[in-house]
Design goal:
The protein is mainly α. It has 23 helices and two strands. Strands 1-2 form a two-stranded antiparallel ribbon. Helix 9 packs antiparallel against helix 10 and helix 9 packs across helix 14. The N terminus is likely disordered.
Length: about 500
């Protein structure tokens, strides 16, 4: 290596020493011309796309013309080819690359950055949910085509195997939902293969969706038992604490009594205990089906979450308003049940119907999933889920979980804030060297995974008092949080 003597050094650095002669001052500081990251696809990627295209063609033909409809040939030819094509494509896309998270081309991609394709995907997702939830009204009241009849018949073989009955639109939805989590879960395995935490939590949400939210509920129907989702409980599944539902479960069988007991105990006792030790991540990022779809299918859009203070204020008002609404609705139903309808009459059922339509269907489904490409993958979890609201309150004021920061190592690259799906400005905490204990944080760990300096670490401490000043007095901390604007109380 050539040594340069300061006494004889030239006034400007010689281009021979720098290895290039580009004059930035003369050339300006504009954005360099963009070269797409993947200009050509490999033969295996084209094979994967071809298999997926063939599966999609098979699906359309079988659903619309009746070819092999209701047979295993039709089911496997459609869904089997789609899944196989996706697996081949993902495997070859990441095969041979260095382990690590690559976000190249993200903001140049129309599908990922609210371009024409992103809007098309958002409209497509939203349209599917509108058809799904209002299917009966579409064709009975308005005379529209029965668009889902063909796809429903395609999954009949699987429905007959698992439930003993022909499929309906909810079985079709459950099948599609589960397949999406499994297929895009495999993509997560490839994308985050260097990160043990991401591999474990992805495997967890795939397992709970497949076993607890799909196979077990459908097998219960096969054995003439009430359908029950063991991975959901009140208030995310509000009817599990409604008096009519509890009565139906306890009168059905001994297993029904256990289901009712499971739902009540886990919802009212298990949630505080598990959240105290592990934060809300034990459920939102490891068990919940809503979070499972967000973390797998929705992963490419996590950077679309809005990070503004206005969005933060709206988030706090909306999610806690939904929580208050379901608490009031549940209380009214129990009062109505206890008084045999004399006190509230039909008002309690009106509350329940309103909640089921506008929150359970429109907010959580149509908006919550339909807006993935436009507002990020956690719209429902961030702004509407009452379960997340309860878990967040425990996490904020009575949990050992925190994300610790090493502010002296932060270089302010902003990756953590950019890819936080909950819209948290993680960099602001890192720069100040503050622990992150925000109620909205789901502990997905991606902020830590994308940090190039190892500044962020997810931890379960030995106590709650060392997370932030005043944490040992949760009641006072809560009162301070609810009376302090977000821009002043950063960890609200």
């Amino acid at each position: 290596m050539t040594r340069i003597d300061s006494a004889t050094a030239p006034s400007s650095i010689d281009s021979a020493l720098t290895g290039y002669d580009f004059d930035e001052e003369a050339g300006g500081f504009g954005e360099p011309p963009h070269v797409p990251d993947e200009t050509r696809r490999s033969a295996l990627e084209w094979l994967g796309l071809a298999l997926a295209g063939l599966g999609a063609t098979f699906f359309v033909l079988s659903a619309t013309t009746g070819v092999l409809r209701g047979t295993w040939g039709g089911f496997l030819g459609s869904f089997g080819l789609l899944v196989a094509g996706a697996f081949v494509f993902f495997a070859d896309r990441y095969r041979g690359t260095q382990p690590g998270i690559r976000n190249d081309n993200t903001y140049f991609s129309g599908a990922k950055n609210r371009g024409a394709l992103g809007w098309a995907l958002g409209i497509g997702f939203t349209g599917f949910y509108l058809v799904l939830y209002f299917y009966e009204s579409y064709w009975r009241t308005w005379g529209m085509p029965r668009l889902l009849d063909g796809p429903i018949r395609l999954v009949d073989p699987l429905a007959l195997l698992l439930t003993g009955h022909a499929a309906d639109r909810w079985f079709l939805y459950g099948t599609l939902y589960t397949l999406l989590i499994l297929v895009f879960g495999v993509r997560m395995f490839w994308r985050y293969r260097h990160n043990r935490y991401q591999l474990l939590r992805t495997a967890s949400v795939m397992f709970f969706q497949l076993a607890f939210a799909f196979l077990i509920p459908n097998l219960l129907k096969l054995f003439q038992q009430p359908e029950f989702y063991f991975s959901y409980f009140w208030p995310l599944k509000p009817e599990y604490l409604f008096p009519t539902e509890l009565a139906a479960l306890t009168e059905a069988s001994r297993l029904g009594v256990f289901m009712a007991f499971w739902g009540v105990v886990l919802g009212l006792v298990g949630v505080p205990i598990l959240t105290y030790f592990h934060g809300k991540r034990w459920y939102c990022s490891w068990v919940c089906g809503c979070g499972g779809l967000a973390e797998t299918l929705g992963d490419p859009w996590r950077h679309q979450s809005i990070k503004s203070t206005s969005a933060w204020k709206l988030e706090r008002w909306l999610i806690h308003s939904v929580l208050v609404l379901i608490v009031v609705t549940t209380g009214c139903l129990w009062i109505n049940s206890a008084t045999e309808g004399r006190l509230l009459g039909r008002a309690s059922q009106t509350f329940a119907s309103f909640y089921g339509l506008w929150i359970g269907a429109v907010f959580s489904g149509v908006i919550g999933v339909g807006f993935y490409p436009l507002l990020g993958n956690r719209v429902w979890c961030r702004f509407g889920c009452p379960q997340a609201a309860i878990l967040g309150l425990f996490q904020r004021f009575a949990s050992r979980f925190r994300i610790t920061t090493n502010g002296s190592q932060c270089m302010s690259c902003g990756n953590c804030s950019t890819y936080c799906e909950m819209g948290i400005d993680v960099r602001a905490y890192a720069q100040r060297g503050e622990n992150i204990v925000r109620a909205s944080c789901v502990g997905c760990g991606v902020c830590s995974a994308v940090c190039p300096r190892g500044v962020l670490k997810l931890e379960n401490g030995k106590e709650i008092g060392d997370r932030y000043p005043g944490a040992s007095q949760p009641v006072q901390a809560f009162l301070h949080a609810v009376t302090t604007p977000p821009e002043q109380g950063r960890n609200c």
